[in-house]
Write a structure and sequence with these properties.
79 residues
Length: 79
Amino acid sequence: MEIMNDETAHAEFLQGALTKAGAKPRPKPTFKGLQQADINAFAGLSQVVENIGVGAYLMAAPAISNKAYLAAAGSILTI
């Protein structure tokens, strides 16, 4: 629940920032259908999802001109 709440807060922050910048953010993904057979498969999939998220933040950083948003994105990235 803690991780889900953190991710929801991150998504809401980003949607708000993008909306203020005049963009139309996509809705938060549902992540349905990601059940795994065992803990090792879960850990492997988790690593893939985390790496995608980190990559997205790193690639977007140069496009963020608002320093407050860049700082916020940087702090989310490290979580």
